[in-house]
Specification:
Blueprint: E1 2-6, E2 15-19, E3 29-39, H1 41-47, E4 65-72, E5 84-87, H2 89-92, E6 102-106, E7 110-112, H3 119-122, H4 128-139, E8 147-151, H5 156-167, E9 171-176, H6 179-187, E10 192-195, H7 201-208, E11 214-219, H8 222-232, E12 233-241, H9 252-258, E13 261-264, H10 272-287, E14 295-300, H11 304-310, E15 319-323
Helix pairs in contact: 4-5, 4-10
Length: 324
């Protein structure tokens, strides 16, 4: 099998393609031939060795994939060889092993992939959709009829959040930073699309909300935007930080006067019991076609370093995937 491995921490250049022994399924396990692996910003942070999760070197990045079962271990009865499946961080709480031509997981940690969903799309169901779902409801307490601002809506988590929030009956404002991104979020049905590189987008949102502000904000780059989110928030509003790459100065008095709740979220803090109903709801959305992952850039497995650079570039558009 082929696998991308990091033998040291550092920039994207530390990722290399290695030849390894083929995997063998143990008791209760399945081996999946990977057809597409998802690339998440968290993968890039972990690669530096400075993230909250520090893997033992050498390691293979990636917790999300879509593929076909090629082996089943003793005692596995829910799957058979040839089944299409989803491998995801949300099911296994592992951010490793999927940048490869094969991945091994306990059978209890994979899900059946519906025939109408592509392997590339499957790679979005391990982090992007459960993160968006958790931020909206578990942390953000979103309710039908509320106004949700997705600050950075054209990336994989953002576009997932648009679909889930619209499905729940929310009024959705989305921001993007490129023409392609603006077109994408409009196609996904936002009620207001704004360009967060514009000098006027804050005024546009205030006008749209009649000066009342935003009930819930999902923030993808808090070190740039948190102060603006606080300004845009309604009284008793909530802000959920999904992404951040540094520090920012804010005025806590704004939070005091509006009685804001500012929360962070990280998928790996969830328990299996908390994730189960989230994944069940996501799977029901897949079944009724209300959830439809957007695929952005595809890279060959050997180009994992380029994929790591691409997932952090401005102008995010859908899911970045690797194809073994």
């Amino acid at each position: 099998m082929q696998a991308i491995r990091a033998h040291q921490f550092g920039g994207s250049e530390v990722l290399q393609l290695d030849q390894l022994e083929d995997l063998v399924a143990g008791a209760g396990e399945v081996v999946v031939d990977v057809k597409a692996a998802g690339v998440n910003p968290a993968d890039t942070y972990m690669r530096t060795g400075t993230y909250g999760i520090v893997p033992e070197l050498p390691y293979t990045p990636g917790g999300d994939a879509g593929g076909i079962i090629s082996q089943i271990g003793e005692g596995v009865t829910d799957f058979k060889v040839g089944d299409r499946v989803i491998v995801g961080t949300a099911m296994s709480f592992r951010l490793q092993d999927c940048y490869a031509s094969q991945v091994k997981r306990p059978a209890s940690e994979v899900l059946a992939l519906p025939d109408h969903v592509s392997f590339q799309q499957a790679a979005a169901f391990g982090v992007s959709y459960p993160t968006a779902h958790m931020a909206l409801f578990h942390r953000g307490n979103a309710k039908s009829g509320e106004t949700v601002f997705i600050h950075g809506a054209s990336g994989s988590v953002g576009s997932s959040a648009i679909q889930i929030a619209k499905r729940a009956g929310c009024t959705v404002i989305g921001s993007a930073g490129s023409d392609d991104g603006m077109a994408l979020i409009k196609e996904q049905g936002v009620d207001l699309a704004v360009n967060h590189n514009s000098d006027h987008y804050i005024d546009e949102i205030k006008t749209f909300t009649n000066g009342d502000g935003v009930n819930l904000t999902l923030e993808m780059l808090a070190n740039v935007n948190l102060d603006k989110d606080m300004d845009l928030a309604a009284k008793f509003g909530r802000i959920v930080v999904i992404g951040n790459r540094g520090e920012i100065n804010i005025n806590p008095r704004v939070a005091m006067m509006k009685e804001l709740d500012i929360k962070g979220t990280a998928l790996w803090n969830m328990t299996a019991e908390q994730i189960k109903p989230i994944m069940e709801d996501i799977l029901s959305g897949i079944a009724d076609n209300s959830l439809n992952p957007i695929i952005g850039k595809e890279f060959a497995l050997s180009d994992a370093a380029r994929a790591h650079d691409a997932v952090l570039e401005p102008g995010a558009y859908g899911k970045v995937v690797l194809i073994p």
